[in-house]
């Protein structure tokens, strides 16, 4: 008579658990709450960045005038305006006349 042997395979399963590096963070800290707040606002699209603009400021009025000029087909001058009566401009005008 032959005896039947039961074969049981023992498999060594290693679990690779990623160990968190660095100092652990406290999720209830004020900084972590700000970070999570910012992330949720960014996901929704409500995150406001930069300095807010004041509606009645002189800068906003200037920008509105420029936008109106562009909308009406006007051209905008770029850079610093030239003083045609300055000594330098007078000298440059005299040089171009001679040539």
Report on the structure:
This protein has three helices and no strands. With 99 residues, the protein is an all-alpha fold. It starts with 29 loop residues before the first helix and ends with a helix.
Short account of what is shown:
With 99 residues, the protein is mostly helical.
Structural class: mainly alpha
The total count of helices amounts to: 3
Would you report the number of β strands?
0
Distance between the termini: 125 Å
Mean pLDDT: 85
Regarding quaternary structure, what we see is single chain
Helix content: 40-55%
Rg: 37 Å
Shape, per Cα inertia axes: elongated
Order of helices and strands: HHH
Q: What are the segments in which pLDDT stays under 50 over at least 5 consecutive residues? A: none
Q: State the major sheet.
A: none
DSSP strand (E) fraction?
A: under 5%
Outline the secondary-structure elements:
Layout: H1 30-44, H2 58-71, H3 87-98
List keywords for this structure.
single chain; 99 residues; mainly alpha; 3 helices; 0% strand
């Amino acid at each position: 008579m032959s005896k039947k042997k039961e074969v049981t395979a023992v498999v060594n399963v290693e679990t690779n658990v990623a160990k968190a590096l660095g100092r652990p963070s406290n999720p209830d800290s004020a900084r972590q709450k700000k970070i999570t707040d910012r992330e949720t606002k960014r996901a929704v699209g409500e995150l406001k960045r930069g300095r807010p603009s004041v509606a009645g400021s002189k800068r906003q009025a200037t920008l509105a005038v420029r936008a109106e000029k562009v909308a009406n087909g006007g051209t905008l001058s770029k850079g610093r305006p030239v003083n045609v009566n300055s000594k330098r401009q007078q000298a440059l005008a005299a040089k171009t006349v001679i040539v």
